[in-house]
Design a protein that fits this description.
The protein is α/β, with parallel strands linked by helices and 247 residues long. The protein is built from ten helices and eight strands. It has an eight-stranded parallel β-barrel with strand order 1-2-3-4-5-6-7-8, surrounded by four helices. Bound molecules: phosphoenolpyruvate.
Length: 247
């Protein structure tokens, strides 16, 4: 199974649902539809209405983040995994580099992952090295820490997806070489096997994925799908990624 996950970030108002309707119509007619799933993360303000609207449709709606405490608490502007689940969302991102750079620590991320899973949300856990880590040849050690400090064997691995997003590639148009990326994805899968003693956890790639760059990525068979930022805000760009992947 492949995944095409759109991360809207701070984008979207109620009428932006038109974008998702177009993607949904494309999906319903696509002869490759059985090979992949489409997930989208609108902002919190649209989570309930979109989750209701897409309940019986093929697009899965999820959240961009969740808080590290559950049910209810006295933390202003915080949204718990329980609250996300209660409005019909099916998954959440955790550990996006935007949130890591705003202060999310490994301990916070560990709590988020485990609480989200406990609420039966799927978790798309984001990892990735920054420009300095890469320059200092620290990519593998950074990724290993991000995985081993947050994930553990007792978690419900069936609901975990990993998104490898090199921070220097997000929104920049810069992408890793094929050899580099292939090695990194294989390394991530090896670390995951060490943690979970299982082979089959999906690992996605994210960072400047569009209709052109997907041509390079599709040659790397170990990549199980994509986390897509900028290009997910346009139905045409998002659909082009899927079309070019299966061309
Ligand atoms: C992202 O923000 O997760 C992302 C991958 O962005 P972009 O596709 O724009 O690089």
């Amino acid at each position: 199974m492949r995944y095409f996950i759109g991360n809207w970030k701070m984008f979207g108002v109620p009428k932006s649902i038109n974008i998702l309707n177009k993607i949904n119509s494309f999906y319903l007619k696509d002869k490759h539809q059985k090979k992949y799933r489409v997930f989208i993360t609108p902002p919190y303000t649209l989570l309930e209405s979109y989750a209701k609207y897409f309940k019986k449709k093929k697009i899965l709606i999820g959240s961009q983040n969740c808080y590290q405490k559950d049910i209810f608490s006295s933390n202003t502007a915080a949204i718990s995994p329980y609250m996300i689940k209660s409005v019909g969302a099916k998954f959440t991102l955790v550990g996006h580099s935007d949130n890591r750079s705003e202060g999310d620590t490994d301990l916070m991320l560990k709590n988020k992952v485990s609480l989200a899973l406990r609420n039966n949300l799927k978790v798309v856990y984001c990892i990735g090295e920054n420009k300095i880590d890469k320059k200092n040849n620290k990519t593998f050690s950074v990724l290993k820490k991000q995985l081993s400090r947050v994930l553990d064997r007792k978690l419900n691995k069936k609901n975990i997806i990993i998104a490898y997003e090199p921070v220097w590639s997000i929104g920049t148009g810069k992408i890793p070489t094929k050899t580099e990326l292939n090695k990194t994805i294989i390394y991530i899968k090896k670390v995951l096997k060490g943690i979970f003693k299982k082979k089959n956890i999906s690992v996605l790639y994210g960072g400047s994925v569009d209709g052109n760059t997907v041509g390079v990525f599709k040659e790397i068979k170990e990549i199980d799908g994509f986390l897509i930022g900028g290009a997910s805000k346009s139905s045409k760009k998002f659909i082009d990624i899927i079309k070019n992947y299966y061309r």
